[in-house]
Specification:
Layout (H helix, E strand, L loop, with lengths): L1 H10 L8 H12 L2 H5 L8 H16 L9 H14 L1
Amino acid sequence: MIEDAITEAIDNGVLRDINPRLATLQFLNLHDHTYRWASTANQLWSVQELSDEYCPTLIRGMAASDVQLRGLDVEANRLRKILAAA
């Protein structure tokens, strides 16, 4: 599902021409084990704060050079709904 979303973004010119499988693994690696330290009693950042940092960090690295990040939160919410429904 993540790989499909990445492939769609590449096809639409939102992401640069990257290997979708590798990009999927990068996405998963960025988020791997976040739940362990993000849900502790010593939580320093809210889920929204983590999302606000993670998404631009990942997307800027994969984005096509002329892509604007405005509306990234809207797209992230759309993808969250797709993943939650799976």
